[in-house]
């Protein structure tokens, strides 16, 4: 069976990613929750901090007792006691009195403000001199100032940063519910390809794509599963895809570079019961030969064999799908930094397709400069030397030297 | 012993980070090498790809045999054979002949170019019609085009991206040498603080800082080691610090919020033999009370107890040190994205210190807007709601509404 071949736009493929249903959720230890994606809206189970706390070292007071106090006309308060950290004060503050309190201490009943230790002086063993007035609420956090019981604090689909994990900790969530990591089976093909630990003979090369894709999957939040290196043999390829279909959520097959294998990929993908061809060819370079077949909830993805094309195609198509499976929006390039720069040379493109051109960036007196990195797509060097991508939109015939452009910085690129 | 107290500038502290010696190196499996830092310059052990390869499906030719061929005046070549993928061709190409070859195939002796299959036609079983001329070197990768033996491809101190790991794979490096992950002992203090899994009573709060710092250490490339929650007790604090000194490369003690503990921290740090006070106070907000004591190769770091100050202080001071221990330059904010934005409200600062103001960003018709997020530093909310930081330099009294500013986007912030 010969699959139909209708080239789609990048936008149409991205829409398919957005239309995909996220995976199920699971619980994780809080210590492993950073960078995972929350599976449900999170509402505060109780007020936070839950009691009125001091934000300074000083004295808990009734604010009105300090009114009028100045450097030249100090006020005096009776030292009624001390707040023990972590305990409920065993007294109520009397009018005209104060209590020693540390940062984080609980205000006694009757107190409504804290005066900083810097604005006081011990006049005697039980008298505190106050040289400033404070307003009610000064230097205190109210019982529900950080969160009110029931208030939604974090939204489903949010990637948890350290501070978000901190908020969960503060509210006693020991095992948050997050989306499961997508398991991505990685298959390399090619009769000329040998495993990394094998010395290649003349005419052979090591399996680079499996290594690169594995690192990309992991850094995008998925779990790479090595399915092996398969020679260009239809039956063995089909068997390996079938195994990955069974064990994983998606399969990445980086097309053997030899003739025939690329055509074969779509045929093998479509040979599984219920297979549905979503994408076969995209108007973008690199990434044109991308294939996407859905079988039930599994996604079979065919990527170019050339390593540079394979890496960029991952960012263009696989990563939005991973994002979506992880319960996020399914947008491309969310993990790329952005940098405004000036183009140092023309980039030629062809109408009717988008181009993602690799560039190096360099900071000069005249700001950031972006230099196109050319080099055949089989060369790793152009990727290793590149810092990011410049997008040349559909319908444009290229970008002129001197243009102001936005560089999409590869994930992991330091600034 | 009362430590001296001379407030230093941010730049002076950063210089100390840069002056620190990196940790030792270790080997890791290639599959775990992404995001680690290379410990030595890496030179190609052999040429890459090591043989002349085709970058297209088509026919290997002697370029001069195609000269003059056009659509209207086709040339004809004898089909001499086929290149088997992964094998050395068992023939030399004769003049006036061609050989079928797939992408990645090895050119036979005599051939110096490839003509794409699209520009050919099978005129007969053993004759190929050629409708275009190709120059020598067309559609081929030379034996050393990706790398020449001995050429330095990756530099020591470089964080490995997926493509860099791919280059190592291509050259057969199964276990690259990378800098060891710094082990960071994390100690929380405070009589009012209870573990996350404990229901806090009135006056108590859960231990947020240990969770946040653990996630920050991990995401910055270190290994967090939980040393426990210690009450405000000098002996127990000293014992826990001593244990961390023995087991880890650095210790993060987020200061108990109660009075006295902050002064105690420096004293305990300085009580160890050979202790050297590097920093005690920095002209920056937040982060002013930061303490850095070196004991041999170990770093004892005292951080503010307030969670928002603690998190920002980590980025300001701990992360550059981690970067440096990992063999990198020791620069702050390398993992932060940058965003140009317009300030929506004034930010007031005080002369004589730098300010890092938390902001929210929002995209509007007039570009990105940055809104200062105020809120007492004990509140998690202002961090959870914030997207990044704006730096107000030393000597400035603030930034005006409408100013064009650069926002440092928190790591993990999606764009």
List the helices and strands and how they pair.
The structure is a homodimer of 415-residue chains.
Chain A: H1 10-18, E1 25-27, E2 42-43, E3 53-54, E4 58-61, E5 75-82, E6 97-101, E7 113-116, E8 120-124, E9 127-130, E10 140-141, E11 152-154, H2 162-170, E12 177-179, E13 183-189, E14 193-194, E15 205-206, H3 208-219, E16 223-230, H4 234-247, E17 250-254, H5 261-270, E18 275-280, E19 284-285, E20 291-295, E21 298-303, H6 307-325, E22 337-343, E23 347-348, E24 354-364, E25 367-372, H7 381-385, E26 388-392, E27 398-399, E28 404-409
Parallel strand pairs in A: 5-6, 13-16, 13-17, 14-15, 17-21, 19-24, 22-25
Antiparallel strand pairs in A: 1-12, 2-11, 3-10, 4-6, 4-7, 5-9, 8-9, 18-20, 20-21, 22-28, 23-27, 24-25, 24-26, 26-28
Helix pairs in contact in A: 1-6, 3-6, 4-5
Any overview of this molecule?
The structure is a homodimer of 415-residue chains. The first copy, chain A, has helices spanning 10-18, 162-170, 208-219, 234-247, 261-270, 307-325, 381-385; strands at 25-27, 42-43, 53-54, 58-61, 75-82, 97-101, 113-116, 120-124, 127-130, 140-141, 152-154, 177-179, 183-189, 193-194, 205-206, 223-230, 250-254, 275-280, 284-285, 291-295, 298-303, 337-343, 347-348, 354-364, 367-372, 388-392, 398-399, 404-409. Chain A has 415 residues and is of the alpha/beta class. Chain A has four domains: 10-24 and 181-325, Molybdenum Cofactor Biosythetic Enzyme, Chain A; 31-48 and 148-179, Molybdopterin biosynthesis moea protein, domain 2, CATH 3.90.105; 53-141, Molybdopterin biosynthesis moeA protein, domain 3 (Beta Complex); 337-409, Beta Barrel (Beta-clip). In chain A, strands 7-4-6-5-9-8 form a six-stranded mixed beta sheet, with no helix packed on it. In chain A, helix 1 (10-18) runs parallel beside helix 6 (307-325) and helix 3 (208-219) packs parallel to helix 6 (307-325). The mean pLDDT of chain A is 92.
